[in-house]
Amino acid sequence: MARARRARRKSTRRTSTRKPKRTTGRKRAKGLGLTRKAQKKILTVAAIVVGILILIALLQQGRHYAQVNWYGGEVGRNAVYGRVTSVAIGALGRGTIHVQSFNTGKVYTFYTGVRTDYNVRRYPAPGDTARVSYIVDQGYRKATYVRLR
């Protein structure tokens, strides 16, 4: 009887003739023909190179400081802070303002016009403290913004 039971068992052999699919083999990408592993390595190297370049740029940026003597000892490249010594402004807003700098002691002459903006809405008087921003046009300093303090 034991032999009969053995004969009734199902066969362990494969009945299909198809080959099984290989799941462990390498898969190729469709685009450049690189594997995903190779693509990851290339992206990692590229990210490291970009990071190093950014780090170098940030380190180089810290070396450039604005030195005071670039501005001639003034408060900015085109700004003077000091006391107004004299004012000659006509009815149309055109005229001159003379400012003696607190930093260097030099007296600067600024030409004013209708485009000159005053922070306190009045013309400066002699003795006022002012910060004058200006542009240089054909060798003349033209006041663009006058902040009275």
Under CATH, the topology of the largest domain is which? OB fold (Dihydrolipoamide Acetyltransferase, E2P)
Structural class determined from secondary elements = alpha+beta
Rg value: 41 Å
**What's the overall average pLDDT, rounded?**
83
Strand order of the largest sheet: 3-2-1-5-6-4
How would you name the CATH homologous superfamily of the largest domain?
Answer: Copper binding periplasmic protein CusF
CATH class of the largest domain: Mainly Beta
Main sheet attributes: strand count, strand direction, barrel closure = 6 strands, mixed
Helicity, in percent? Answer: 10-25%
Dominant shape: rod-shaped
CATH architecture call of the largest domain: Beta Barrel
Report the total helices. Answer: 2
Terminal CA distance reads 117 Å
Low-confidence stretches: none
Number of strands: 6
What is the H-and-E element order?
HHEEEEEE
Domain count: the total is: 2
Strand content: 25-35%
